[in-house]
Amino acid sequence: MSNNTAAEIRRQVERFLPKVLKPSRYIGSEWNVIKKDWDKTDVRMVFAFPDVYEVGMSHLGTRILYHLVNSYPEFLCERVFAPWIDMEKELREKEIPLYALESFQPLNKFDVVGFTLQYEMSYTNILNMLDMAGIPMRAEDRGPEDPWVIAGGPCAYNPEPLVGFIDFFLIGESEEQLPEVLHLVAEQKKNPVSRQDFLRKVAQVQGVYVPEFYHVTYKEDGRIEKIVAEEGVPALVEKAIVADLDQAFFPTNPVVPYLEIVHDRMMLEVMRGCSRGCRFCQAGMIYRPVRERSPETLLKQTEELVRATGYDQIALTSLSTGDYTCIQPVIHSIMEKHGAEGVGVSLPSLRVDSFDVDLAETVQKARKSGITFAPEAGSQRLRNVINKGVEEENLLQAAEAAFKKGWSTIKLYFMVGLPTETQEDIDGIIDLAKKVVNLGTKLGRRNITVTVSTSVFVPKSHTPFQWEPQEAGSSVELKQRYLREKLRDRRIKYSYHDVTTSYLEAVFAKGDRKLAPLLEWAVKHGCRFDGWSDQFRYDVWMEGLKELGIDPRFYANRAMDYDDILPWEHIGSGVSKRFLAEEHHRALQEAKTIDCRYEDCTGCGVCPSRGVQIELKG
Amino acid sequence: MRLRIAYTKIEDARYIAHLDLTRVFERAIRRAGIHMSYSEGFNPRPKISFGFALAVGTEGEREYVDVELQEEMDLGEVLARVQEQLPPGIRLLQGRALDQGAKSLMAVLNAASYRIRVPMALPIQAERLQEAVSGWLGREHVTYSRYSKKGPTDKDIRPWIKLLEAKIQGDEVIFDLEVEMGNSGSVRPEEVLASLRELENLPIELDGIQVIRTGVHVSYEGGKSSPIDTAG
């Protein structure tokens, strides 16, 4: 490669930058950006988001960790996102290495490159970004001069497909864990020990998983025989957890992008965790227990956010914001205090009930565009199976309230291919959609639209459905076609997710270490941005699977046994395997499980095993 | 209170797309704690408007924006408070309160001037350069083909040119260009230079072109002025 100093990279990039799409993705001089003195910090980390800038900058965790690391004077944290296809082409043609936005330093000059794993279909971007940076993809090919390549985020709960590429994973919430790791990196730079010895030290940090210390053997049929941890590292890596969310670090001076990003607003995290217990939902299991922030903290943070960003909208985020016990007083206080400056509130997640329609009404500033409800399944039976505590009556009441308050577009979100699903459940989707449409018409609303959208169920690790297979694509497609046929009505719009993407997502969600060569192969054959339908190349993936002799059905479509060793058996979310199995069993019996926030403990195991507790402020 | 402000859009700020610029000013003004006026209707937007878009990547040495505020304020104070909240490449140069009923920037602006630096592909003599420029300016019509998704369209770019001068500096040629702008369009500096290279065989390296828009103007018979001076 040519001269790779930061100044030289910047000079070269500026020559072609006006020609690429959205140049301000790549320039890093946004409001509130943190540019530290490279030479005056002990550890330099680059936070890498394996998707485009607009997606990455919308992610709350990225915002938190960037500012958290930079809050330590001894650390520096910069950002990098996956360059879009056109930018990659320019960089590669001109042999310019992938650089970090703040300093234009190439990634291989950093001590730590930290990827966040938000969805499986971004894995090829991780390898491609390493390659663009001139960092060997395989951990074994990297030397002492190369950065530590680490990864965290929800997909790290099944890290196995990425084993071989990532030096170590951070499982769980990183607010306390990541600084601890970086202090060890600082120590390692000062008094270096061998790679092995360093990794052994890091493995002592709560939630750190160093895959090379865990040895996996397989049975003849490809299932796992056992996973053996070496001496001196935990046999079960248990997630890190923030016990006191109210006092936890939260940045109120986030970077404000120039270009419009996906969630272009302030984000206020009102709580973490959800204990509704939907059995398909990984987030609902791995972020337990529920911990709320106090209204006082939230109002103080809002004030600071408004001053520091100039945004005109604040989103109250969490897995289910309607469940936050102080939601009404917080919304009212924010509107009272900041409404006059043109600041509005948005609620990204609504429950299916009329209480939340009232909340949506309260915050609605302007025209009522659309309101979204997620019944997830079409029949009461199937909703009981997935433990989505929503009755048809709730939905119709919510829809009625929405129509009466002036909404004319209602979006209904469902999954297709859920465990035990039958024709009746699919018909239930059609039935519900028609009931909502007819309700609107009966209420005298004109020009109503009901948008039905279905995704394909993907079984995820650490959920009660982790043992479940994904339904075969051909049969899901039949269901999609049936729905398209039956939902033909000028008042109903139907959209659905691509089956092939969901299929690969399932392969990686339930995958093991044997998939690593497939990822490498796919990247070499041009796969990247697989989550983007215009970039996804299913045929190339299929060719790779064939060439490497990997049967995708083994991962995606095989029902696992309770006594199978799961690929993620050695990773702990705090929720016990026994509880997940019980929940799976109850699902098959169509039995509902309560929310432990309001009633008795359901015995998932997270509180006693981790010495934490549910924290409600209302 | 309506304000017209002159500002620079240089350094990294030159990569901010025109469509994103409204948000940049809107957020800066809100951070400054100054209340903007909003449009009526379902989706109220702050009243901020600009003149002709500056191409992404091109620096602007003197651009203009109109902003409407809810209350009367001291002009110097507004400029100082907003300046503090703007990214480094956007510097406020001058401001003026507009009279009620003053025309918008888009309605008054009709010309732009550019300074263009371009490396020579082969050595060029001063005389040869002047010949090329006067030869090009002497043409009554200059056809230029623009390529879009729909294919090429031919356009006469000569009528837009008000001034074109060139001089040599080291191994670069420096052009001063002034063009008319209007709702029916204009001509880009890159197009003028590409045409000059092609029609007059002037060996310039278009890949290394650097364009600065030095100003936008209210032009009239015999002269031009700034939209701040003419606003009344």
Topology:
The complex is a heterodimer of chains A (618) and B (232).
Chain A (H helix, E strand, L loop, with lengths): L5 H11 L26 E7 L3 H4 L3 H11 L4 E7 L3 H9 L18 E5 L6 H10 L15 E5 L15 E3 L3 H17 L4 H8 L5 E2 L4 E5 L5 E6 L7 E2 L27 E4 L1 E2 L10 H4 L4 E2 L2 H15 L3 E5 L9 H12 L5 E3 L7 H10 L6 E7 L3 H6 L6 H13 L4 E8 L6 H20 L6 E8 L16 H14 L5 E5 L2 H11 L6 H9 L13 H11 L3 H5 L14 E2 L4 H12 L17 H5 L8
Parallel strand pairs in A: 1-2, 1-3, 3-4, 4-5, 9-19, 10-13, 13-14, 15-16, 16-17, 17-18
Antiparallel strand pairs in A: 5-6, 7-8, 11-12
Chain B lengths: L1 E8 L8 H14 L16 E3 L8 E10 L6 H10 L7 E7 L6 H4 L2 E9 L6 H12 L5 E6 L2 E6 L4 E9 L2 E9 L8 H11 L10 E11 L2 E3 L7
Largest sheet entry of chain B: 9 strands, mixed
> Mean pLDDT of chain B, as a whole number?
93
How many helices of chain A? The count is: 21
Q: Beta-strand level of the residues of chain B, as a percent range?
A: 25-35%
C-alpha Rg of chain A (nearest Å): 24 Å
InterPro entries (chain A): CHP03960_rSAM, Elp3/MiaA/NifB-like_rSAM, Radical_SAM_N2, rSAM, rSAM_horseshoe, rSAM_sf
Protein name (chain A): Radical SAM family uncharacterized protein
GO molecular function, one term (chain A): catalytic activity
Pfam families (chain A): Radical_SAM, Radical_SAM_N2
